[in-house]
Amino acid sequence: METIASTSGLKTMQLNDQKAGMQGLNKELINKIIYESSKGTPFFAFQEKRQKSIDLKVKEFKSILKKITDAEKNASLKKMNFLCAALEAERDLSHSIVHIDMDAFYAAVEMEDNPELKGKPIAVGSSSMLSTSNYEARKYGVRAAMPGFIGKKLCPHLAIVPCNFKRYKEVSHMVQDIVRDYDPDYCPASLDELYMDLTEYIKDKHKKQIHQNICLKQKHIAADSDYKFCLECSKNVSREERDNLAYEIVKESERKFLIQLI
């Protein structure tokens, strides 16, 4: 009889639980279900091929690393430190950048349009691939980038709703219309996230109040607002903050925050 360890199989298929609402799951059991339900499918064959390609690249990189001399390492370190110093001197940290991320966006839109789905585990996509899942479904290990047939094995009562991108675009534009009042030059990153520069606007207004105003105007879609001076910091913090939360990083705490991500 195969053990959980032996059937967890390909690393490319194992559960990535680095997503809000997926903490404390039994990863070993979930990986076993994923492996067993995938065997013999085109998805399994694709992941096998993908894993072999990754393993080959890792082997090649390790071979290259073994050939690098200490002198070459020191020269590269010196060059890197020089480039870091040059980039640091050019950085402009005078702006307040906000990253807004709509939480489980496609699923949130579907639940708002179909109230009977609220409180039930749902995912958006098809049996071939899921685009997102709500928090109820994540409790079972169901998440985006997972085939729907595997999601059904993890959660037999999972409701899979077909994608409706026309509707998602409509709601996304509604959010963007609100944001445009604060920054006409906002930068959309996708349908469910965007960046905006509030430097001028917040001179006379409180940042937390701006977050509350946006959430109230688009009250049915949860949004996470992160106030930073650094675009990459904004993106990374919003991965941690969920459920209409606002989080701010000031210049003095930037390095401490980034070190925690390593």
From TrEMBL:
Name assigned to this protein: DNA polymerase kappa
GO MF assignments: DNA-directed DNA polymerase activity
GO biological process, one term: error-prone translesion synthesis
Natural source organism: Trichonephila clavata (Joro spider)
Organism superkingdom: Eukaryota
Residues annotated as domain UmuC: 97-199
Pfam families per record: IMS (PF00817)
Record lineage: Eukaryota, Metazoa, Ecdysozoa, Arthropoda, Chelicerata
Gene Ontology cellular-component annotations: nucleus
